[in-house]
Amino acid sequence: MKIKQIILKKIETIIKIVRIIKSTNKKVDNPYYYEDLMPKSDLEKNRQYCESIDWALKNKDIKNIALTGVYGSGKSTILKTYIDNHKEYKYLNISLASFEEGDMGNEGYVEKGILKQMFYKEKHESIPNSRFKKIKNVKTSSILIKLLFITLTGVLGILIIKPDIVSIASAKIQRIDNILGFNRVSTYLMISIFIVLATCIFIGILKKCINSIKIAKIETSIGEVAKVEAGKTDVNAFDKYIDEILYYFEVTKYDVVIFEDLDRFNDIKIFSKLRELNLLINNSEQIGRRVVFIYALKDDMFSDKKANGEGEEYIKAAYKNRVKFFDFIIPVVQVANSSNACDLLMNKLKESNQWDGLTEEFISDITILINDMRVLKNIYNEFVIYKENLQERDRETGEYKNNLDAVKILSMVVYKNIYPVDFAYLQNDEGMIYDVFKNKKSKAVSIRINQINEKIKELENHIRIEKKEYAQSLEELRSIYIGLIQAKAANNNADGYIGYKNETCYFNQLIKNEEMFENIIQDSSIKYYNGSSYIYINLKNEASSDYFERKKNIQLRNELSKEHFIEKMKKEINDLKNEKAIVSSLPLKTLFEKYDFEEVFDGDIKDKDLLKFLIKQGHINENYPDYISYFYEGKLTRRDKDFIQNVMYEKPMDFNFKLEKLPNILEKIHDYQFGKKYVLNYCLLDYIIENKDTNIEYGTYYSFIINQLANESETSCSFIDGYINKYNISKSNKDIFIKSLCKEWSEFWSYLQYKSNYNQEKLDDYLLDILQLVEDDDVLKMNENNILTQYISKLDYFLDLNFEEKYIEKVKELLKKLNVKFSNLNMVNENNTILDHIYLNDLYKINIHMIEMIMNYCAPDQESEKLMSANYTAIHDNDKCEGLLKYINCNINKYLENVFFRLESNINESVDIVLELINNEEIIEENKEKIIKKEKRVIEDITQVQDEKIWSAILINGKCKISWKNVINYYLKFKIDDIVIEYLNNEKVNTVLLREVLEDEFEENTYKEFCDKLIYCDKITDNSFKNLIKSIPYVYNGHFKLESLTDERIKTLIINDKMKLSLENYNNLRECYNEGVLLLIKQNINYYIEHQDDYILESNEILDLLNSRITIDYKIKIIENIQVEKLDNKELISEIGKYTLRNSIILDKDIIEVIIKNQSDIEQNILFLINQMDSLSEKDTFELLNMIDKKYSDITIYGKHPKIENIEINRNLVEKLHKKNFISSKTYEGNIIRINNKKNAD
């Protein structure tokens, strides 16, 4: 087996040699423009530096040169350029960049590192006398040459010693040819192959043996080196091996030693050692040449700084170290810095065609902290490598392409180069980025969710308070609490007040003064004065917090109505719930834009500005795993795996988390886990729904999920809402899901309406889905206590909902099954099948709006004015509204109550309609009476109303024609009751009736009975009776029971000529109403004049008659018929005298005598006598003249010549006496009249 292995190894070596030869002849392609990080020779750019170095090297006094500059400034490039262009020197390069930080402070390690680089650089043959032993590899070619030499020497020796050996060998070969049947050539070929193989095997065995011997020797050397390394630390390596170092430079002939990266150790002591070493080398006689040390260092290497509380302080002499250590210092201007790194990287990316997907702004942002050219090159190289290696194979085309964001790839590469340690941690799910995205983001999101929950609770509390709030203003609210204070004090004294901080606060002041009121109710003890004493009341715990909540609510409400305010609050709650549902799924970049998420940068990352920038801008985001490693997809993607792990460990994830290998995911999840909230995922549910009919297990999973979602938990409800309304769910999946959910959760609508706090728009979206998608039986189950029916019935915009055409019939049928009664539907201008269905199936409430809406829909040409003023008539008379009329007639009382009576202007229904309604047996009596009261129309004949019980309402409300016919028809049914009395007492009624005479439409007895009842009805007012009696056609001779009538009623009868002047009536009046006698006589004066002797009147009655308005003729006849014994009333006597004077009435001498005796006025008596003288004899005249006054007595004595005063009355008297020949003559003598009496009587 060993021989076989040796042979195979040799064959592999031959193949490698062939490949190397081919590769050296082939040009290396660099399609991606990679750049190595090694220094590059560029004489043009570094000419000045090279010239400076060249001058220093040629200056024999300079032995230590410093090339100083910041990291990445190009020091190594300058040195390489110089080396490439100056072959006259032999260079030794020593770089200590590979040392660990733990070794940096150990001076001995640095020195040993320098020695190792020096000695291990040289071949053993170059320093054969060095005590440092190295493992020496014995080359096969060396063994082969030596072996060949030994073999040839041996063969020559044998030939010399034994020359016939060749013929012997030839004979033996011939024998073999004969035995094997080979020819000579074949035999020699076989022998040659055997010799070659044997030689190879022998060389291999020999090489192993030699190496084994060498290892043993080397182990001894290593042990010696180990002893040196384990020596005391106070003996440094340079001092220990100074002779080795001098020997080294003696035999190697190096002129220039270049030290790089010594500044990484921050220890200037090494420079002291090296300067000392350089001095020893240059002063060594055995070396005999100048050796220059060149140091590539950072600028601040010799600053020796220390930190204190005030910042950084430099040791005073530190700046002198630089010039003390070096003979010549060359400063290097930085090639790449924050100002030009952007341009350098950008140009490189564009030059290499890697610019797609990147922007100048982004490059500028990320390069601001990059000032090292090597870092810049490495960023480019790694960006290209990552970009190419993160390509994925397109399943359709089979081509590889990179679907990742170039900006994010470059961001990750920058992060890797700037923070390499953290990038290494990230590979193991540790470090700053991992902590930000996996821990701190979750905490910050939890805080935001808690804030949202608090805000939702606050808004829900506002809604709860608002529903119970009845105060419309802050002043009204304060007055409520003032009432509470009074109630606590059990005193409502308006003069009470509150004592607060030595001030007297009256209630009306507190209602106006918000600040004072709020200070008082927050006080633990209120001092209330009730008018007599102080009472201490504590409202702080009971009223303070409640007041401020209510105050905030009123302020929030502002000018909004209660309904609009609550709807606004519900919308805010819905928005917050939507926000809460997505906040955990939002990328951190969006969270920074929406909220203050600075807390995620607490800790180590706080000062990492570039990393914070990349995260804030979303250049490094939650998908960072896709940008740091290639995931070899098998049965699961990386995201699928994350999801399964979270389900297993019961960690909630965003519902919208994208999954890919869904069948494989389902294989990994156990049945029972589908009943837990951690499995809820939109993608997963979609896939289960789509495949549950073909996979029994999926059907089981689906049942578990639906059963879980019906538990009314916040998580379930949030998932449902997100899946239906936010997730891009397919139409078919949505149909299936909603059907299943509503079948399982019969209280789903109850939750939506009363507990979800969804706004109106979202509730309507759910309603649309339920009506269109859910089975009718399941919808009816959700309609517990008619909650769904009531909700739909109130939707005025129901017809505007966007129902799909294919579901219209289903929706129509459901409306009927739910017995929906729309109360406020908006009008539609075009034909609408749902509205047709609503109309034809009476699925609307009978109210003003719906009647108007249906009328406008069925009969758009209907006059709106008529609909408002004669609603039922308009519907009744319109042939297009038969269905509406039928619906109304079936619910006539509801129509009357909700429409007919509520339409204030609906007072002009036609008489026929009014009669139809009040004759409708379905209408309750109360509503019939309301119809009668409301309508203006008047019924001609009360008997047209079949329901006699409402006749009274007709009369009272004056809704029948005012006629004795209607009154008597009512009387025939109800006699003279309070209704007809009230009716007849109506001035308008009796005023009309007085102009109407009872007609012969009823039997005589009916009329007489009614009139008698009317006359004796004391509830008929006197004023009404005065009008009503005029229509009675009867005059009564005396059958009245006047004792049953009031004086006023009797008077009215008399005045209206309803009592005849008869002895019976006269006598009855004398007994019951004496004043009525004279009134009756006046009303029957003509009859009385003719029958004065039958009706005896008292003097005062006669006087009254004379003073009444009867005609003069009647008065004269009364006076002429008066008896002297009746003249016992001076007033009557005086009145008779006056009438006599005015009307030349001839009286009996006895009456004249009575009048003169009772009249003291002489002048009046003389006039009265002159008036009556024509009917008196001379004797009677003189007797009466003697009665008037003594001064007239001489005129009555015959033969005398009396004288009287010459005045008008006396002249009239004398003229009358002379005319009547009662005196002889008269003479007017100045102031007297002389009368010549006759001598004697004739």
From TrEMBL:
<keyword id="KW-0175">Coiled coil</keyword>
<keyword id="KW-0812">Transmembrane</keyword>
<dbReference type="Pfam" id="PF20693">
    <property type="entry name" value="YobI-ATPase"/>
</dbReference>
<dbReference type="InterPro" id="IPR048428">
    <property type="entry name" value="YobI-NTPase"/>
</dbReference>
<feature type="coiled-coil region">
    <location>
        <begin position="442"/>
        <end position="476"/>
    </location>
</feature>
<keyword id="KW-1133">Transmembrane helix</keyword>
<feature type="transmembrane region" description="Helical">
    <location>
        <begin position="143"/>
        <end position="161"/>
    </location>
</feature>
<keyword id="KW-0472">Membrane</keyword>
<dbReference type="InterPro" id="IPR027417">
    <property type="entry name" value="P-loop_NTPase"/>
</dbReference>
<feature type="domain" description="YobI-like P-loop NTPase">
    <location>
        <begin position="49"/>
        <end position="434"/>
    </location>
</feature>
<feature type="transmembrane region" description="Helical">
    <location>
        <begin position="185"/>
        <end position="206"/>
    </location>
</feature>
<protein>
    <recommendedName>
        <fullName>YobI-like P-loop NTPase domain-containing protein</fullName>
    </recommendedName>
</protein>
